[in-house]
User: What shape does this take?
Amino acid sequence: MKKILLSLAPVSVETLKFLIQCSPGVPEFGVIDGHELGGEELATAFAKADVVLGTWTFKRIGKDLVARTGSLKLIQQPSIGYDNIDLKACSERGILVANSPTGNVATVAEHTIAMALALVRKLVRANVGVRAGRWDRLTLAPSEIGGKTWGVVGFGEIGRAVALRLRPFGLAKVLYAAPRQAAKEVEEQYGVEYSSLPMLLKASDIVSLHVPLTDSTRNLIDAGALSSMKSGAYLINLSRGGVVDEAALADALLKHVIAGAATDVFVEEPLGAADPLLKVPEDKILFSPHIAGMSPESMRRILTDSAENIARALAGQNPLHVVNS
Assistant: This one.
């Protein structure tokens, strides 16, 4: 019987089939374009699928959809994050979930440093001022990254990529907080020092977040964490919106507890009109619409990796980068 791939990604069926068929030993298969499907149509498509390709628009794959599956063996998420998928429901039905852990690492690392430079160099405020007819050349007081302490929260692929790219900037110190300390040779390779999260927050001038959203990281940066940071510190969130208590961050910025923040991710996406962060003046916080991992280069890598993993599953082989048991 011909295998069925359900694609939720905004990618043409022809492109997807071509990428998958580049791998040897792939049996004949059909593709359901499910990017625009919803409701009962989507549930019916899930019931037919042997493999599902998720989407970087983070369409929710909850237990109701999972309950409708029949022969589904793999959900391939084309991103590092997979919190849009109910892992427990998938595991209970024997469905493997895999991600693409390296495809957009370089892109996110570059976006992290770009946001830090924009904050430290006061580029948002400078842009607003010039457009408003001001020439705040002597009052903006932009600074440098060099000589500062940077705290990297999470030392996976992205955290390490950020640390590696920071080496030419001449930072005084790069600290990292992670569940486990890396080997000494790894720390030397990336030029980092291990720290507990509380000590990292107290010592750092710039803090960037690179952790998945789990029960243990939800609201990891809350009012208490923010109050422990330096008054001149900056917070950068490129992980998930739920890692930061948005109301607490807005309050901290309005009360000058920290100097500024940048975020690419939000609890509600797109950003809701009532989001407390929108009350913060634009010269105190920098937004981007969950694009840190997006570039033509990263999309090619992610689609190629995902297609190869789907090919493995269609051919009856064990997929790589499985995130559930």
